[in-house]
Amino acid sequence: MKEDQVIDPYRKKPKQIRSEETIEVIFEAAARILQTKGLDKFNTNAIAGLAGISIGTLYQYFPNKNAILVALARRELGKVSGVIIKNITAEYASNENELARVVVRSLLKAFGGRQRARKVLIEALVANGLSQELSRPIDDVMQAIFAQKTQLQTQYFKSMTPVGLYVMTRAVIGTIRSVVMEQSDYLGTEEFEEELVRLLLYCMREGD
User: Among residues 44, 21, 20, 19, which one has the least CA distance to residue 33?
Assistant: First the structure.
């Protein structure tokens, strides 16, 4: 499957409030199964049972378990983007060190929970030719900064080239992806956070 091919995992779009609630229940059940039992026990019957819905209701929204994996992975990545943008706004980064730490901590917080489940979700995106979507959180943040032409952009990213921005985002996300996939003990440690902050600062300064 080509990486630029768009995959729409939904059979039915969650437009109404009740539909959205059902989708969330399905996602929560799916995440819990992945975290506690792993991919071997992950199937539509198990998800429907834990979610407290009929298998027919589940199939109204998703055609199979792979579609649930892709949709859940995308949902989680979207949540990461929102958290980072919110934190940058709420904690306004007054200097480059603070900016780098806000971004890194938000990423680690989002990717740090349910590590076993996140590993499976990352693998699902890669298996479906969607590995480029793993960089979505930090791409969304950079696009938001540049689109708004904020002080952050003027002060820290004014001279950064598209190639420099690409290297920066992929370096940070790639490192976090590796620690999740390897289920490394580094995830959640202060030392790992410091090294990521240092990496992000280096890329930012090299762009000046």
Answer: 44
Q: By three-state DSSP, how is residue 1 classified? A: coil
- Residue 56 tokens read as 């027919």
Please report, as a single letter, which amino acid is at residue 157. F
Residue 100, Cβ neighbours under 10 Å: how many?
22
Candidates 92, 95, 186, 106; CA nearest to 138 is 106
What is d(CA 101, CA 160) in angstroms, rounded to the nearest whole number?
19
Per-residue pLDDT reduced to its tens digit, 25-43: 999 999 999 999 999 999 9
Q: How many other CB atoms are found less than 10 A from the CB of residue 89?
A: 12
What does the mean pLDDT of the chain come to?
80
pTM of this structure: 0.69
Residue pair 162/155 in contact (Cβ under 8 Å)? The answer is: no
Check: CB of residue 167 under 8 Å from CB of residue 139.
Answer: no
Burial call 53-62: b when 16+ CB within 10 Å, e when fewer: beeeebeebb
For the chain, how many helices (H) and strands (E)? 10, 0
Residues 6 or more apart in contact with residue 47 via CB below 8 angstroms: 26, 29, 30, 33, 58, 65, 68
Contact 102, 111 (CB under 8 A): no
